[in-house]
Every structure is written in C-alpha cells, then in structure tokens.
Amino acid sequence: MELTLNNGVTMPALGLGVFQSTPEQTTAAVEAALAAGYRHIDTAAAYGNEREVGEGIRKSGLDRSEVFIETKVWVSDYGYDQTLRAWDKAAGKLGVDYLDLLILHQPAPDRFEKTIAAYKALETFLADGRVRAVGVSNFMPHHLKQLLAETDVIPAVNQIELHPYFTQPDVQAADAEHGILTQAWSPIGGITFYPGWGEDRRNVMEDPTIADIAQRRGKTPAQVMLRWHLQQGRSAIPKSTNPARIAENFDVFDFELSADELAAIDALDTGVRNGPDPDEARAERFAMVIPEA
C-alpha cells in the first residue's frame, strides 16, 4: 500500500521503525522486514543505528531503489551549515547517495531559528536531488505555522506520537490542512509499555475494546491498530526486532475494519502524551553529538 506525498513521491504506508533497536539487532531486523515484504525503513541519527540499517538493506539483495529510506537530523546538527554536514553523516553511514525522506527530529522551540535554518538546508537537498522528500517530526500546529511562514517547501510528512490512547486530532487536522502526511511513531502504543517511560501507564496493547475487535477479526491487537492507521490514511512505522512480530505487523492487508470499529478505536483517545513534550527544551538530550562515522 503506497501513499502519495504532497510533492508526488510515493511512499510505502507501512515501514519498520528501529527506535531503541541496538546496532547488534538492527541489521537482522531490517533483513527480516525486507524478507517479509516491507519496503520502507525509518531510522534517525539519534538512534545510533543508521550504519546497521544500511547493512541490512544491502544484505537483503534488494536494489537501493526498491527501499524507501527515511532518517532524521538531530537537534545538535541544526543550523544551515551543520545540517548540510548532517546529510553527509547520514548518507555515509547508510551507504547511499540519496535519501527518500529526511526530516527534522524535533521542533526544538528553544532554538527555533536554528530549526528554520536546518529546514532550509533540507530544501537545498530537495532542490539538488540528495533527498526526494523532506519533513518534520513532533511538530505541533504552532510549530508548523511558524515554519511555514519562514520557509518555501511545505513538509511532506509530520511524524508524531500517535496510537489509540493519544491521537492528537489537532495536529492531524493541521497536517491535513496543509497537505502534510501524518506518520505515526509508536503506532501500536509501544510508548505505553516501554520500560523506563514512567509508571502508572495503561498498556494500549491490553485494551479490551481493541482485544474484542482483534478476537472478532482473528487478528492481533497490534494488527488491528495498524489497520486503523492505514484505513485513516496515515503512515505507520511499528518497531520490532522479533522476526515473527515483524512479519505479523506486516500482515494487515487482508482485512478491513468497519466504520463502527474505527470509531470505537478513535473513542479510546485519552489526550495524554506518553513521550516527551515537543515544547520542552531538553538541553542535555539536545546536545547529544552525532558522530561523524
């Protein structure tokens, strides 16, 4: 299933995410995903596994042009010249001469002038063919408004936390208004049960409404959630390093949820963010240096 971005580039709707996948696990996960039928891999400079993503793609035997590669510039590389260099780092580690989608990882509102300059570097890459599409991640409507006022190219994608317990309808509406594709990170709610992300969280994977739909459909809760994203026109990038789970997450094209089922899942939204607040400055995290090689 392909989605057409606002510049005409097509992107597989479902991709493999590699957030928190260790370098040792990443190559095998990417190989397993491509063997299962995935053609879209999402990584980031900040994940520290771009090199292993590139290795997995090469080991798959697939031609470079068959795999849609998406990565992200980290905040410490924001600024026009710094972001020009960030492309060299990413392309070098991935072992490619172009990227399909390059996005800014955070709005970083405490230094938004550098965010704008970084985005202008992305526009340069788009113009000279080093990237096929550009976008942003974790941008709220007010960040988008400011970005659009100061740049020329409308982002193709906005990657945000989005799962049944946190659907961000205001962000989805702002994206839609500008023709920006909403892409869900943590699409099956991993952020609601990852260790180390706070206590007293409700695990969306154990939600009774989703479990009931899954049972009726003969599918897993994860498959139901991914189908919910796809039917509502979003891109989703579930993360796993387990080959069986990777294949299971891709097996979502042989059933359809009803309007009532989609509405029941929509109704689970709590409005509670599980990941970091994009408006919060995280000086120590933002200062993390991305190595050259």
Structure at a glance:
The chain has 293 residues and is an alpha/beta fold. The chain is built from 11 helices and 10 strands. Helix 1 packs across helix 9.
What is the global morphology?
globular
Distance between the first and last residues' Cα: 34 Å
How large is the share of residues in beta strands?
Answer: 5-15%
- Give the H and E element order: EEEHEHEHEHEHEHEHHEHHH
Largest sheet report: 8 strands, parallel
Radius of gyration equals 18 Å
Query: Helix proportion of residues, in percent?
Result: 25-40%
Unreliably modeled segments: none
Number of strands: 10
The order of strands across the largest sheet is 3-4-5-6-7-8-9-10
Q: Helix segment count?
A: 11
Summarize model confidence as the mean pLDDT: 96
Q: Give me the secondary-structure category.
A: alpha/beta
Q: Would you mind describing this structure in some detail?
A:
- With 293 residues, the protein is an alpha/beta fold.
- Helices cover 40% and strands 13% of the residues.
- It contains 11 helices and 10 strands.
- The chain has helices spanning 23-36, 50-60, 80-94, 112-128, 141-150, 169-177, 208-217, 221-231, 243-250, 259-266, 283-286, and strands at residues 2-4, 10-12, 16-17, 40-42, 68-73, 101-104, 134-137, 157-161, 181-185, 235-236.
- The strands form 2 sheets. An 8-stranded parallel β-sheet has the order 3-4-5-6-7-8-9-10.
- Strand 1 (2-4) and strand 2 (10-12) form a beta hairpin.
- Helix 1 packs parallel to helix 2 and helix 3 crosses helix 4.
- The longest helix has 17 residues, at 112-128.
- The mean pLDDT is 96.
